[in-house]
């Protein structure tokens, strides 16, 4: 289902929505993610009326800290690292298992028993296997991404979640551990019809209700 995701600022193909096409940014977050805050699963429509993102309101959240998620990416704060090797991405569509409704979003799960599929290189010390991907979107086109760039919100955001298969025996333990997860975030903009994305959209009517699932 997912063959060549878009990374960095290069254009490539993802799968999913017909309305979404162009990638703007790919972020890699691999270090010390707090598993309980892997990403926001608060319905996106609720966020619009909040001056501060709901994830920044909890007792463990301190706006301005160095490990915040979501984050507002600012070009002037970005530092180019010439020493970083290329990120290697290899996905296997045959490993796609099912899509389900988490109650907040829909998630596509992969068989992660296979060593080959996943990501490595870049800032990663180990190989990380693809576990699942999901999208964040909003009630209106203009507002859906979890993260922002220069305070700009994008219509949607794709998260590809990988776990450290070298350091941990399974995803569950990786979620709780240091350097356990690596997530690629892809901002999506409105665009022309996207056939590969449409195949994913087509299964959504089958998982309209919470915890419903389709294989
Ligand atoms: Zn997410």
TrEMBL record:
Residues 44-215 form the Alpha-carbonic anhydrase domain. Belongs to the alpha-carbonic anhydrase family. Keywords: Lyase, Metal-binding, Zinc. Its EC number is 4.2.1.1. This is Carbonic anhydrase. Reversible hydration of carbon dioxide. SMART domains: Carb_anhydrase.
